[in-house]
Design brief:
The chain is an all-alpha fold. It has 16 helices and no strands.
Length: 347
């Protein structure tokens, strides 16, 4: 087995082990795991509507995963994707409701507003990390709460106390009659195409540009990069800004596509935090993030079918997801086992 094969097998084995232990948990809780997983499968692929809703659920996970993965690849841990997503959601919703413009201008402007809002929210921890060496994990966690409460206050202020922005104008919407009819009137929208485009953008930046090379070099060893003449502070800030832009676009998926508006939030969406697991499962690579986001989006939506079809609490799926993350995080043990197998094969 090559190292590339081992790298591929680790998340696959982790998923298998997570599903296996999840089945044991269901059985010990008095539920039939076969019926449970059948209900989960039908919730994901049962009909055209389910497939459309599953793909729609994947879009924000893709962008949240890219945001976390981009920061990881450049040596930073962006825990603030949730806050960056929320401010991006608000910016897209505000531009989508406050202006009436031609569609060719309005939609790109709303998407740009979301990306800029997320980027600016990422700029703050980037600056503090670069100039004052304040750890980005602490700052980004704090900024999640700041984002949540500031956005709620802005929504109440703009809406005159109604706790909800007006509906997004059609010219700024990502919704599609064609996709909706194709998937039996699901809420599938064009956001999935934007998310996939951003996968290509991340790959191009990191693997095909001088800037990407410097960002990765600073992430591997900032002291060596400084000695080589690279501007370490600039690259730290740029990394957080780009990561925040991806997260902001994740919020735009919800504003312009899924919900078509934004209401005051009682808590976090959870998408930004799940983005950490998506990036981890995808080994922080653009293609891997597609795999991780597909798994998480599918499990999250398919889980809704388990209580009705199998009488299994939705919390069981949360346990399965947690188990998968646990086994991915324990990937070193799996890697050791695979390497031993590799040595035996060599003999």
């Amino acid at each position: 087995m090559s190292n590339r094969t081992i790298k591929f097998l680790i998340p696959v084995i982790s998923i298998f082990l997570g599903l296996l232990v999840g089945a044991i948990v269901m059985w010990m809780s008095g539920y039939d795991p076969i019926i449970g997983y059948a209900a989960l499968w039908n919730g994901i692929f049962g009909d055209a509507y389910a497939i459309g809703e599953t793909i729609r659920q994947i879009s924000p996970y893709l962008l949240a995963g890219l945001a976390v993965a981009f920061a990881f690849r450049t040596g930073l841990f962006n825990i603030g994707v949730e806050g960056q997503l929320i401010v991006g959601w608000f910016a897209a919703a505000y531009v989508g409701t406050a202006f009436e413009l031609p569609a060719m201008i309005h939609l790109p402007l709303a998407l740009l507003a979301a990306a800029v809002a997320g980027a600016l929210w990422g700029l703050v921890p980037g600056l503090l990390k670069a100039k004052l060496r304040v750890h980005e994990v602490i700052v980004t966690i704090m900024m999640n709460y700041i984002a949540l409460h500031i956005v709620n206050a802005l929504i109440r202020s703009i809406s005159g106390g109604s706790y909800k922005l007006e509906k997004i104008h059609k010219t700024a919407s990502l919704r599609s009659e064609f996709l909706s009819n194709l998937t039996d009137y699901s809420t599938l929208h064009y956001g999935i195409l934007i998310a996939l485009l951003m996968v290509a953008v991340m790959w191009f930046i990191l693997d095909k540009t001088k800037t990407g090379y410097e960002l990765k070099a600073v992430g591997f060893n900032d002291q060596a990069s400084r000695y080589a003449g690279m501007n370490v502070d600039k690259n730290i800030i740029l990394s957080m800004v780009i990561s925040g832009a991806f997260a902001g676009l994740g919020g735009a998926m919800e504003a312009l596509g899924t919900f078509g508006t934004m209401s005051s939030m009682g808590g976090f969406t959870g998408i930004g935090f799940d983005g950490i697991a998506v990036a981890l499962l995808g080994a922080n690579s653009p293609l891997g993030v597609i795999f991780g986001a597909t798994l998480f989006g599918s499990l999250k939506y398919g889980a809704n079918n388990m209580p009705n079809a199998a009488g299994i609490p939705i919390e069981i799926v949360s346990i399965v997801i947690a188990l998968i993350i646990f086994f991915v995080a324990s990937g070193y043990i799996i890697r050791v086992g695979l390497n031993r197998l590799k040595k035996k094969e060599a003999k």
